[in-house]
Structures are given as C-alpha cells and as structure tokens.
Amino acid sequence: MINLNWVKTTKSFLLKNEDTILVNLNYNVGKKSSFYIDENEYTIDLVGFWIPEYVVLKGNRKIISLKQSFWENKGEIIFNDTYCFTSEYKNKNGLSLVISEGDNHVLSYKIKFEGTTRTVVLEMGTNLIDVDKILLLATLGFVMINSALSDESSSGDILLLIS
Q1: What residues are paired with 67 via a beta bridge?
Q2: CA 118, CA 107: separation in Å to the nearest integer?
Q3: Alpha carbons 108 and 60: distance in angstroms, whole number
Q4: Which end of the chain has less Cβ packing within 10 Å, N or C?
Q5: Which residues touch 161 (CB under 8 Å, ≥6 apart)?
C-alpha cells in the first residue's frame, strides 16, 4: 500500500510519499497558486464567475482546463492532449470531490469531521493512469476542495489511502 500525505509547512503544502516530496504547492486561497513537480513549475488559477474555469499552466502554456457551470456540481477536466476526466462535488455524509475517467474512479477528496476537527482525506481509485496526470489531478483537486471550504483553520495535513 502506497501512503501519500499532504503536509502543511510554514510556506507551502507538500505531497509526500514517505520522505520523498512529489509536489510542492504554494497555495493561496482565492488567488493564483504555484506548484512544482520535479523541476517543473506550474500555476493554477480560477478565472470567471458565472462559468468558472480552473486553468493549470506550465509556463505560459495551458495544459489543463476544468470548466463547470455556476449552478452545477459537475465539471470536465481536459488535458492538452484532449484526455478527459470529470469532476463532481457530492454532499453525502460530508463534502467530497470525485475525479473520474468515464465510470472509473481516479481519485477523491473527502471531508470528515470529528468534533471540531476537520480532516481532508485523499483516496485513490483502482483506475491507473500516468503518474504525472495523477499528480496534476491530485494537486488540482487539493486546490478545488480547499477553495470550496475556503477556511484556512485546518492543520493542512491530508492522508492518502490507496486501496
């Protein structure tokens, strides 16, 4: 079983596998965020209001676009190579964000409450895709679920379970 965790530091969030840093995210609520995978720098920005779109850029080149309508809980994630995923917010036993490829679950973030403590859990599906796409989707999902919560009071530590 692979154990990945988002860990909050004083300046960023790190997606780690044991001691290996996979993603270094400088997350800014409601603003453009930047992150690194290996030596590659990316930015995530939310543009628009009535038809919001998350845009992931590598340099000046758009590599991911996630569009969803203002009133709907579903969106479409398109990579430059036209590879398509869907995103969907659900509110059953707490808020969750599910990213799928067709009918196959790729990953999800779930919010769990124990008393006044909030925990964000990242779960991987059984649908295996390219590692770079998984890291990009995990980072995009992290920004999306935290933007939906828009509360910086949590510890920021997030547990990833792969079943």
Answers
A1: 53, 76
A2: 19
A3: 28
A4: N
A5: 1, 3, 121, 122, 123, 124
pLDDT lower than 70: segments of the chain:
1-3, 69-71, 81, 150-163
CA distance 53 to 51: 7
Query: 7: closest CA among 162, 122, 103?
Result: 122
User: Hey, how many other C-beta atoms are within 10 angstroms of the C-beta on 73?
Assistant: 12
How far is residue 2 CA from its own chain's centroid? 18
Token pair 């190579």 is found at: 81
Question: Do 29 and 150 form a contact (C-beta atoms < 8 A)?
Answer: yes
Quote the CA–CA distance of 28 and 45 in Å, as a whole number: 10
Residues 6 or more apart whose CB falls under 8 angstroms from that of 24 comprise 12, 13, 14, 35, 36
Q: Which helix (H) or strand (E) holds 148?
A: helix 131-149
3-state secondary structure (DSSP) of residue 31: coil
Which class for 125: exposed (0-12), middle (13-18), buried (19 or more C-beta within 10 A)?
A: middle
pLDDT at res. 70: 66
Paired tokens of 131:
């590692």
Q: Assign residue 156 a region: left if phi > 0, alpha if psi is -120 to 50, beta otherwise?
A: left
